[in-house]
Each structure stands twice: as structure tokens, then as C-alpha cells.
Amino acid sequence: MEWLLQQAAELAAAEAGTRGEACGREALAWDLGVAATEGCDLAVVVNLSAPRGPGQPPYLPAHWPMKGGWRLLAAALFSRGLDWQRKVEWVLARGNEVRFTDPETQRRLYRAGADRPKLEALPERFDWLRNQGCSPVGSDALRTALREGSAQAVGWLLANGAAPDAQAAVLERFLEAIWHAAVSGHLPALHALREGMALGPAHWNPLLHGAAKGGQLRVLTLAALAGDPAVLRWMREHGAAWEPRAWLTGVASGSEAAVEVLGELGCPQPDPDLLYGVALQKRLWQQLPALHRAGVPLGPDPAAVLAFALVQGVPEHVRTWVLGEAGIEPQAEAAAAEAAEAAGTALSRRAERVVLNLEQDALRWLPGNNYDWEWDEEGEDGWDGGGHWLRDGEWDKE
């Protein structure tokens, strides 16, 4: 610490020689104060604020001008360590005035937090800001969070009112931030973005092109799991290899348009009854006729689909539709369902396992989890068509 202070004093002397003594001292106080508050324990910061000796001022000034108060507060609020709240109280107790309702101050403070993607308990610190009347205005912090890959910041900001406005220049900068996130492979941040706001073609375009430029297969997979028809068409046009899994994710996404596009593009299908089973398992009744429109038959055993549908308690109009597609007269419904009870139970178990695997996909695609998919003919994990996850080259059975 003594060496650091000596170096800072020499730097201040150099600044004083070129910009004036007062300016050099001020620069030292600002830089040292922010660095110490963010990186050191509170006890160290307090010690730097105490007089060094007779006639010697403290390294840190007793009071910061208002224009610098937000910097010192941001350093305390988003500092490393568990004593950030004590630091914040200390900064404010020293008379540093921070105008929490000032839009520029709001943007600066939230942007400072979004710039620290690895900071622990970031939402808790954002909560503290919000409770002071400091609102996340505009999209500055959101753009920073996307560029830096801070998923916790993206999620919190979207949940608390931060969003890009319709102004063309602002929207363009927001789309650039999405592009940078995709190029960098910031999958958790992009996942938080998809969960927090509705993404249209204008958002998907930079995401897809950024992912392609950066070679980010996992980001492209996230896009496909969204079930957006424009995304599916884009991936097909750019040479994406389709597997039966695409149908399962398309059905589970709840997007009727995605199902119709998969049929339109001629993507290979798993067993048809499993597709209807996934729709029933997730109670996505609208996907049943969507599958029919996409040319997917009810399956080799329509009565099994009927039995599973009755167990799921489908609405009356869906029940009538299934009976019609299965070619079963209403008076024969009970007998057909009873005869296919075992097959319906087997279908429900397969569908349940597929849905579980779809939910686990989001975790397995996170950066740092070295998972790959290997197809086989066994179907150990519930995917129709067969296959299992490999983690670091080994079969992952979790």
C-alpha cells in the first residue's frame, strides 16, 4: 500500500507540473479515492481519509464535489467484498451529495453496475439503488450488460422497466449490443434477454449474424429453441443441419408458426405420436392441429394419443378433434381408450422424459458446460430416434 501511495504521489506531481498543482492533487484524490473504495476494505479507505501527520492533508479529501459524488458511490456500491453496504453508508455520511432522481446520474450508476458481470449479488445492489428512488431509465445499462455478458444485470433491468425506446438511433445502438453479445458468445445474457422481452425479427437478425460471425453454435442453438419461424428459416438457409430434435423443440416452444415452418422445410421427424405426446404433456392444445396442418399424422396408434389426451384432461373441443383424427366414433371412445391404456401410459412417460430433457437443455448449453449430443439407436435418454449427452467426451446420465 505504501508503494502504491508513493507511485500515486509521483503521478500527482507529474500532473501538477503540466496542469497545475491544484489540478494534480485533485486528479490524485479522485483516482485514488475511486480505486481504493472499489478494491480495498473499508478500514483501508477510512485510513486513507485520516490526516497523515501535522500539516499533511489526508490522501482522500474530506468532501467530494457533487459532480464526483456519483463516482465514489458507484465504487462503493459495486465494490468487491461483503462490506459494500458499509462503504455506501460511509460515502453518504461524508456529505457526498448524489441526486438519485437525476436521469444522468441514474444512467451512470446503473451502467457502472452492468459493467461488472462477475460481481456477486448484483441484483441486491440494484435493489438498493431502486429503493433510493433511482430508476433504470433508458437502455444505456442494458446495452452495457449485453456487451459485458452480465446475465444478472440484463434480467434485473428488464424486470424493472429498462428497455430500448423506439428512437431509431437508440434502437440501432441496442441492436449493436445484441450483435456484440452474440459474437462474444454471451449465452446467459442473451437467454436473459429472450426471457425478459419479446424479440422480433429486428432483434434476431443481429443475434444470428453475430453468432455466425463469432462461431457461437450455442447461441444459434438458443435461437432455435426459441421457436421463432424467422430464426428457423435463417438457420436452414445458412446450412444448419436439422435433426428430429428440431421438431421436439419447435412443438415445446408453443409456436404454431415454428411447427408449420418445420413441415414446410421438410425437416426429419421423430415418431409422430411422440410429437403429439409432447404437446399434450405441456398442455399446448393449439399445437395438435398445428401438427396436423404441418402434415404430421396422429401416429401408428391413434388410440394411445387419445388415452393420453383423456388423462391430461383436454378441453372438449380438443377431445372431439382427437376423436375425429383418430377415426373413433364417440360411442366407442371409452372402449378404445381402455384398450390403449397401456400404450397411452408409455407415451406419457416418453413425452415426460423428452420435456424434462428440453428443460435441461438450457443448462447444458451454458458456456463452460462441455456438452455434446451423440445420436444412437438406443434412445436411452427419452429422445425418440436415440441419443445421449456427452460431457467432456463421457456419457452424462444425470
Automatic annotation (TrEMBL):
Gene3D superfamilies: Ankyrin repeat-containing domain
Origin species: Edaphochlamys debaryana
Transmembrane segment boundaries: none
InterPro entries: Ankyrin_rpt-contain_sf
Coiled-coil spans in chain: none
Superkingdom of this protein's organism: Eukaryota
GO annotation (BP), single: ceramide biosynthetic process
Region (Disordered) residue spans: 378-398
Protein's UniProt name: Ankyrin repeat domain-containing protein
Gene Ontology MF, one: phospholipase activity
Basic and acidic residues composition bias: residue spans: 389-398
UniProt GO cellular component terms: cell periphery; endoplasmic reticulum; membrane
